[in-house]
Amino acid sequence: MRHPHRRPVRGRVPATRIRQSAGRVGIALAIAAALPSAIAAPPALAGGPAAPYLNPRLPVSQRVADLLGRMTLEEKVGQMTQAERGAIDGDRSQITSLNLGSVLSGGGSVPADNTPAGWADMVDDYQSHALATRLKIPLLYGVDSVHGHNNLVGATVFPHNIAMGATRDPGLVKREEQITATETRATGPQWVFAACVCVTRDVRWGRTYESFGEDPGLVTSMTTAIEGFQGRGGRDLADPKHVLATAKHYAGDGDTRFGTSTSGTYTIDQGVTITDRRTFARIDLAPYVAAVRKRNVGSIMPSFSSVDWTEDGVGNPLKMSAHTELLTDVLKKKIGFDGFLISDWEAIHQIPGDYATQVRTSVNAGMDMFMEPYSAPQFEQTLLAEVRAGRVPQSRIDDAVRRILKAKFDLGLFEHPYTDRSNAGTIGSAAHRAVAREAVAKSQVLLKNSGGALPLRKSQKIYVAGANADDIGNQAGGWTVTWQGSSGNIIPGTTILKGIQQNASKVTYSADASAPTAGSDVGVVVIGEKPYAEGVGDVGNGHTLNLSDADKAAIDKVCGAIRTCVVLDVAGRPQIITDQLPKTDAFVMSWLPGSEGAGVADVLFGKRPFTGKLPVSWPRSEAQEPVNVGDKGYDPLFPYGYGLRTRR
């Protein structure tokens, strides 16, 4: 999802930036290990022991019906409203007065004490204000745990989804999200805005790395992520090792046409998917069918993007947040989704018309909860007026609230509204990081290996160059501590350089390749992108698929001076390497590995074999995009599924 995002588009207040040092990280982890297993028990709820909705032995459907029958219209509308913590933190009584159903942390929106204890204390205090309402309906807290609990300094940071698609390992994806769920819920949030099951069809898209790949079959196989978050259903959601998942962004966000975006300077993100219904179902809808019918996902986030059906001629796109056909007729009725829909960050503001029209249109189209980060009071007043005027039926409100309450009962929040901190000591643990390191190793794709350049030998004198060799912020990418991510030492972990140094004693490092190369046996050049997120990373919005001049210069110098030259690309999508590839002996796509750069070294030195396969086609030039497997005249530099294998 997006959150303090699109602030570059609409000029919102920048997200909180986190300043931290290695010492602070150590303190954070020490606090996590010392946390108590639980805090005080929740106060008694309203209605007395005879109230059916308070009886955990009754079926959830009966409890929902009972509670819904006790609620006023104002209380129902409150449940449909989600505010950003930055909007209510200074006056937390708004949670009570507005009957808020949910609060979220946008990217980089964190407590002043960005530690497990700081998070849990914040969420629990918010919860205490929700429990001060008449019916004491617990609060649902949501965060973007898109590659680990990535807002929390000290959490395990996994490779982004594009890398996980390269592993071709749905079981590993499930394990990753089980860990993410455990680390997230131990700090308070019970709901994550993940997994992204978009199908990326144009790598010029700034969200390419959030997708598992270009093939709907591959993405569908990775919906195991949802099971990792939620468990298998039943009582699993109430377990402190699970969270409510969100399949996003429904649907077609990765299939928009370049140049159709009207959001600020974006070029493709939030654009228009121009297609026919049959193709849309085959490519863009397929993962959601599995997410609903096989994984029983609890929530779905509609996309910012629009759909323009070619059956009735091109030129009349409709925003997904207003799309009755796709939200209600297809998703809820045909596919059978019984969870709730959560809008993206102020997404309804992109629907044509005044604010009342935007609210009315989206609610009637089927949206259930509204992410109105800084306009929650206005949203509630507007929706109340629309219902009272008869423009939004009461039945639509009841349907939305019924879906939201079901999730809260399933999560066990009425019995245990406060944070269970018993798993806080596992956050960033060695066991969790070992799984992330395995994911990194399995995601590495070997595109070229001439003359047995890889694996490296420990006895070799290794010359390491490139801006991304020793920058953990760059290798983690966007959605790391802040929305856009940032370069530098922003999280604990191991850089690729440190991983190499752990395997060889004769290592020379020069970021700009200015140090002498004489005497080196092999050169390793680590190139790639700097962090970005969403449409900010769109090609044409200040970004390109071409390598930077500095990266080209480093390849030219090192590969021209050292007999054996290996290049690693640390990026969220393929880059144009057509002219540089012949200069290399080996080329590895390392993606955005996250906190465990040692996993890259594991395959470089043969501790693990190269097994990764491309989840997207690799273009020969930027102009060749979009290029996808199955296209007429398909001729990429490297095809979908390509990847050389090595022995251990």
Average pLDDT value? 93
Fraction in beta strands:
5-15%
| Amino-to-carboxy terminus distance | 39 Å
- Overall geometry comes to globular
> Which structural category fits the helices and strands?
alpha/beta
Residues in helices, as a percent range: 25-40%
Low-confidence stretches: 3-48
Strand order of the largest sheet: 12-17-16-15-13-14
Calculate Rg over CA atoms. 24 Å
Number of strands: 17
Helix count, DSSP H or I runs of 4 or more residues? 21
Biggest beta-sheet profile: 6 strands, mixed
SSE layout:
Elements: H1 7-10, H2 22-34, H3 60-70, H4 73-79, E1 81-84, H5 85-88, H6 94-97, E2 102-105, H7 116-130, E3 140-143, H8 161-167, H9 170-185, E4 191-192, H10 216-221, H11 224-230, E5 246-250, E6 272-275, H12 277-293, E7 299-302, E8 306-309, E9 318-319, H13 324-335, E10 340-341, H14 355-365, E11 370-371, H15 376-388, H16 394-410, H17 430-443, E12 445-449, E13 462-465, H18 472-476, H19 496-501, E14 507-510, E15 522-528, H20 549-561, E16 564-570, E17 586-589, H21 598-604
Parallel strand pairs: 1-2, 1-11, 2-3, 3-4, 5-7, 6-8, 7-10, 13-14, 13-15, 15-16, 16-17
Antiparallel strand pairs: 8-9, 12-17
